[in-house]
Design goal:
Mean pLDDT: 78
Low-confidence stretches: 1-11, 224-228, 635-654
Distance between the termini: 29 Å
Order of helices and strands: HHHHHHHHHHHHHHHHHHHHHHHHHHH
Largest sheet: none
Number of helices: 27
Strand content: under 5%
Amino acid sequence: MSTTRREIAAPHWLVQLLRSTPVPIPWNMVARAVLALAVPLAVGYALGDIGVGALISTGALPTVLSESAGPYRYRARRLGGATAAAGLGYFAGLITGGIPAASIPVVVGVAAVSALISAAGSNASVAGLQMFVFCVLGTGQHVTGLRVEVLLGLFCVGAAWSLLVALATWTFRATSPERGAVAHVYVELAAMLSAADEATSRVARHQLTTAMNTAYDRLLTARSWLSGRDATYRQLLNLLSASTPAVEASVAMVNAGRHAPDDVIDHFVATSAAVLANQDLPEPPEAPEDADPVLAALYAGLARIGKGDNRKRREIQPWHKRLRGWAGSLVSGPLTWFAALRLTLCVAIAEVVALLVPFERSYWITLTVGIVLKPDFGSVFGRAVLRGIGTVIGVGIGAAVLAAGGEGWLLVLLIAVFAGGVAVGKVRNYGILSAFVTPLIILQMDLASTGSWDIVLARLVDTVLGCAIVLLFGYLLWPGSRRPQVGGRLADSLDSLVKYVDKGLVLAPSGEARLERSRARRRAYRALADLRTAFQQVVVEPSAAGRQAVAWWPVIAGLERVADAVTEVGVTLGRGAPAPADADIALLTAALTELAAAVREERDPAEMPMPDNEQLSGVVDQIGAAFDAVRGPDLVERAPLRLVRRFLPYHRRA
């Protein structure tokens, strides 16, 4: 890599680290967080004991921290599991608090368990984090002087209240999340087709992929014992499936650098509004007589949307199969064990350091270590830095509250503001989340005692020590933490692209064949979207991992263009364009297979023959550009980590 490239690396990772995700403010989540956390305080203050209100509010915190968008039944499982795990961890912390010989082994053990169960999925990961967080918080509650059963009872009251707030609208808004997800797909289609330039349309295409993935995930995980709702889920899923030709034709239009007619864009907007309002779909516009194959396919796709597909719903996987899959992931995924070992070691160090720090309630050190090092949440370096920055800001807010002598209704108002800030920070930036959750927990956990500047100083020192432990033992000294671990995932994405090329460039005369082609396209785009997310998590690091992610970025963009070019050719099949010869398709798949092998084996890809076919010229050009990107001058920065090949089963599973 050139000197110039190295000089701009640091500003680049810093900008990426501080960048806020440009998503709308989730006002519904903000409102629920305010109600769940502030109402118990208000009631407690009105009844003359704000300390009890704070303890009840603490029980509502797991639900607020675990809240996410999605179907109600999915959210009920997620929030219920996280709250139950938090209660279990809180109880373990309560019964061992004040006895270091008992609390330290319990906290370290809970940390190890929380890391291992993260491999079971997103919901298990969130539950594991809450179990650890509230186990640590529970160890500091002995100073309140209340009995364990009283503290646990107040926690359970708060937990029940927060679950009620989170799920109260289920009875009359049961299918709204799924309906909104499907409607959002048509909004993103309209945005992509109306983009003014290639860069804007590329971003819009990424957002369309995310919207499609979200809609399918929500509909395929939604289940109901009420036949009416189940029929609605099937109707929305069939509608989304029938939109596949329109999606493919839209991608083909954008890839060809063409603008869609205004009536097409208006129809997508109207369709989105109709789906959201549960009304009849609008009539599709008529195709012009002189429409070329791609434009004709787009109008045909619009007409197909209203017809729907009769698609079978995916069966729910039995719990014992899910448990077996989780156990298999632990056996075949050494990186999970490495992450658990790193977390356990750093938590043990934090517990020892907490004994030596002359501050009351120094559990904040362990809390910081666990939250930052929690597996599957992105870059350790980035989270440690953002946690430190956010906590400094949060402590400053806490200091301002203490300096102003905040009490009574002013305190309730501040808790409401912090609760809303937590809901916003969760979707915007981890640093924003830390800046609001720090004063929130400070007030909740210390409200029963007399607030003072000592608390502010203690929280600041504890957080700095926790971040220092993470950066030193969990990042700088931990083997392989500063080396890139993304090469294996790039090769796996290439494998998905190979399957799409094999399915997407042949005629699909039957419904089953079209379904297979659609599934191959979705898997390829989903794999590329997941790959982009993984690289964005690593790019915030100033180490070789971050530089490698920056250097690999043109390759990822090249693979996305290959997928778009394949989609464009596939749209024209059956509309006057013949299917490419099997031999030509075999040359393309062989080239992409060689590219994947070169990435895995850390070498330059070999020269591969390409088909001399005008119909496939766009695909050939994009594959050639991907080969050039892999052979580029920054290849030394993109050499995949040696451990990738050792842990390849884990990467393939991921």
